[in-house]
TrEMBL record:
<feature type="compositionally biased region" description="Basic and acidic residues">
    <location>
        <begin position="454"/>
        <end position="467"/>
    </location>
</feature>
<feature type="signal peptide">
    <location>
        <begin position="1"/>
        <end position="26"/>
    </location>
</feature>
<dbReference type="InterPro" id="IPR002938">
    <property type="entry name" value="FAD-bd"/>
</dbReference>
<keyword id="KW-0732">Signal</keyword>
<keyword id="KW-0560">Oxidoreductase</keyword>
<feature type="region of interest" description="Disordered">
    <location>
        <begin position="442"/>
        <end position="467"/>
    </location>
</feature>
<protein>
    <submittedName>
        <fullName>FAD-dependent monooxygenase</fullName>
    </submittedName>
</protein>
<dbReference type="Pfam" id="PF01494">
    <property type="entry name" value="FAD_binding_3"/>
</dbReference>
<dbReference type="InterPro" id="IPR036188">
    <property type="entry name" value="FAD/NAD-bd_sf"/>
</dbReference>
<keyword id="KW-0503">Monooxygenase</keyword>
<feature type="compositionally biased region" description="Pro residues">
    <location>
        <begin position="442"/>
        <end position="452"/>
    </location>
</feature>
<feature type="domain" description="FAD-binding">
    <location>
        <begin position="5"/>
        <end position="342"/>
    </location>
</feature>
<dbReference type="GO" id="GO:0004497">
    <property type="term" value="F:monooxygenase activity"/>
</dbReference>
Length: 467
């Protein structure tokens, strides 16, 4: 008897899951996607955050390469124009505690490019490696019972049709309707939590000015400790000789959509460096806004009953404020959990597979969730939560660690390891890290961006603001 797996959603989580299922013995893997998929690295309608800055952290890229062995995903991205940025030396970062120093030592790196390029590279690699069918179709429900999911109901002009499957993977993203679909099977009571800081992202693409091709990624982080709305900005190199510039502001501090206001917003941040850089750069697009930024956690792992034949991954399980750059990596971690559970044997129809994967994927999302929510609850006007005593204690320690990281390599390396998702937050509590946090920065804080003389000359040459 043939074994069919159906994946809902052709984003990162869906395509990685499809690759895993094909390798694990599914005779047929069908991916359902409501959007028309572009032939190249182009924006698609169903990805509301697609035009804004995305960071592919080292831990996430490691997971993707594990799931697509031999695809050379890193090399594929770099060949297409993506950039590899060492966190230790390739980034200018103003934190709540001051500028991070740049160190001439190796450390984790991140890959920067458009989200469309990451999606396209993964989609292409999956199709090259395994037999996966992608159908343009909208899933509107699940078939089966509370005991077992038997397939997916698909919207069709002449009436809904049913597609049978031994395993269904919901990777439909932030807009998932899984709670309602489970209710239709008689499984109610899905617990959800939403923490919404009201973040608005505003992004614009610029041509990299001549001579600025090697200028470091530049970010002015939001400050959660001053009882004011979050306000931040980033200049990120992407493929095609372009800068993707994203500004973000929480409720009461939202960036505007008009070009002049966008520039003013960047200049009014605690340091005007982002505005100074883009004041002399040629814009290639309008300013694009997005408000789809809340943190949403569906605690499916807590359901007292879970049907056989159903897995939920990626943003359908947990979505995060995109300011923290963890969404793509968490999608890959969930697919890796699916791969490891399938590796235990039994194939896509193995008893208990769905519950084990949902529980494992939830654990894999916990670090990103606690990072995002632990900071977002500190901003004024946040909806869905207030900081607890534990939140405040963790925030105080994190702040002390960030202060130390402005002048301590030991503290900075702990922050990089956790930020890159190569280590859990426990890394921040190892003896060496705690000692660094307690001791504080041995080097004095930098009152200006830690630029090289050449970079300082580039900035002066671009600055049209007179700041």
């Amino acid at each position: 008897m043939s074994r069919r797996a159906v994946v809902i959603g052709a984003g990162l989580a869906g395509m990685l899951a499809a690759a895993v299922l094909s390798r694990a013995g599914a005779d047929e893997v069908i991916v359902l996607e409501r959007d028309a998929l572009p032939d190249g690295p182009e924006h698609r309608k169903g990805l509301p955050q697609g035009r804004h800055a995305h960071l592919l952290m080292a831990g996430g890229l490691d997971a993707m390469e594990e799931l697509l062995p031999g695809a050379g995903l890193r090399e594929r991205l770099l060949a297409a124009g993506a950039h590899e940025i060492p966190l230790s030396s390739g980034m200018l970062a103003l934190t709540s505690e001051g500028w991070l120093r740049r160190w001439r030592r190796e450390g984790p790196a991140m890959v920067t490019c458009s989200r469309a390029l990451v999606d396209w590279a993964v989609r292409t690699a999956v199709r090259e490696q395994v037999p996966v069918e992608v159908r343009r179709a909208a899933a509107v429900g699940l078939t089966g019972s509370a005991a077992r999911v038997r397939g997916v109901r698909i919207a069709a002009p002449g009436g809904d049709t049913d597609l049978e499957a031994d395993l269904v993977v919901d990777a439909s993203g932030r807009g998932t309707r899984v709670a309602g679909w489970l209710g239709g099977l008689g499984l109610t009571g899905v617990q959800e939590r939403a923490v919404d800081s009201g973040l608005v992202n505003a992004s614009r693409v610029y041509r990299v000015p001549e001579g600025a091709e090697r200028f470091p990624l530049t970010v002015v982080h939001a400050n959660p400790y001053v009882s004011r709305p979050a306000r931040s900005a980033m200049v990120m190199p992407i493929e095609g000789g372009r800068w993707l510039v994203s500004c973000g502001g929480s409720r009461g501090g939202e960036p505007p959509a008009d070009p002049a206001g966008f520039l003013r917003y960047a200049l009014d941040l605690p340091d005007p460096i982002v505005g100074r850089l883009i004041s002399g750069a040629e814009p290639l697009t309008d300013v694009h806004l997005s408000r789809s930024t809340s943190n949403v956690r569906r605690y499916l792992e807590r359901m007292p009953r879970w049907p056989e034949g159903l897995v939920v991954l990626g943003d359908a399980l947990a979505t995060f404020n995109p300011a923290y750059g963890h969404g793509m990596s968490v999608a890959a971690f969930g697919a890796r959990v699916l791969s490891r559970e399938l590796g235990r044997g039994g194939g896509p129809g193995a008893p208990g597979l769905g519950r084990r994967v949902v529980r494992g994927a939830a654990r894999a999302a916990d670090t990103a969730w606690s990072t995002a929510v632990g900071q977002d609850v500190l901003y004024p006007g946040v909806r869905g939560g207030r900081p607890t005593a534990a939140d405040r204690a963790l925030a105080a320690y994190t702040r002390r660690m960030m202060k130390a990281a402005t002048g301590s390599y030991a503290a900075a390396s702990a922050v990089w390891d956790v930020t890159s998702l190569r280590a859990s937050p426990v890394r921040m509590f190892r003896p060496s890290a705690v000692l660094a946090a307690v001791a504080g920065p041995p080097l004095p804080p930098s009152v200006e961006p830690p630029l090289t003389p050449g970079e300082r000359e580039v900035l002066r040459g671009l600055d049209r603001t007179g700041v």
